Amino acid sequence: MEKFEFDSGIDGPALVVTGAVHGDERAGPDSIGSFLENWDRILKKGRVTFVPVVNEAARAQNTRFVDVDLNRCMGAEELGELSEHKIVPEVRALLEAHDVLLDLHSFRKGDGAFALLGPKDNSGGLEPFSHEIAETAFGASVGIKRVLHGWLGSYNCALSAFNASNGKTDDPFPALEKSVGMTEYMRNAGGYACTVECGQHEAEDCISNGVSAIEGALVGLGMIEGEIPKVEGGFDCYELYQVIIKSHEDDGLINDTIENFDVLPKGEPILKVGGKDFSLDQDGVIAMFPKASPQIGESIITLARPSKRLDNV
Fold it and tell me: What's the whole-model pTM score?
């Protein structure tokens, strides 16, 4: 992995900015490249490392991954000869050498950038965490209006229920094997993190969103001079509270045109779960990460509801 490292020589945060964890996403490499071209490279404190391309093999073939999603296997206990497994130790060491992570991504379908934060402070066994205040402020500093939180906990609940329905009750935290990515690993290593989905791969504002997020992160951490990007009208913050996993051949979206941030209708069937119609009993729920053709055991859709986490930032 090619790295660009800058050290002020003054005590302060150690930030790492990563891109192309998924090889077909241009936001990270292009945003980091654009930022470095125009930055005066003066740090007030701390140190920063830029890694434009984390998954070089996937980037070379312009695919999301070669063998397995790197942003899902960072917690794998057994690493084999798969392409992504071979670089997991190096990526883990990179994250462990820093305090804060900004992970830049882009996406294929949907409208508008969004940021992802981790859990609230807790001492639980799934994702213990003690940097909620710092991470919330960091997430606010990147200047993305839409902010989500709560992924790993909601996915773990769904996966546990799915496993239990198939007689598997020995592991209370199955998500740790199947859904630990860059930010989850960073938190596990004692730091905090934010994922920024900068926009659609080819959208005009995708790269400018990434550059702005980098600048905002550095300003927010007190590492460079400047202003934190303004978010007009305040943040739209949502908690990911329910992941729905396909458990029956007939399960799936009734309307496969649903996209991220679509507001879902209360009381109207939106998908089939366990072979039965499923509808919402509350207003204000949005769709996230819908899949048109999931396999049994994969998520169909994630439901999100309004959250006040960023109201006082």
Answer: 0.95
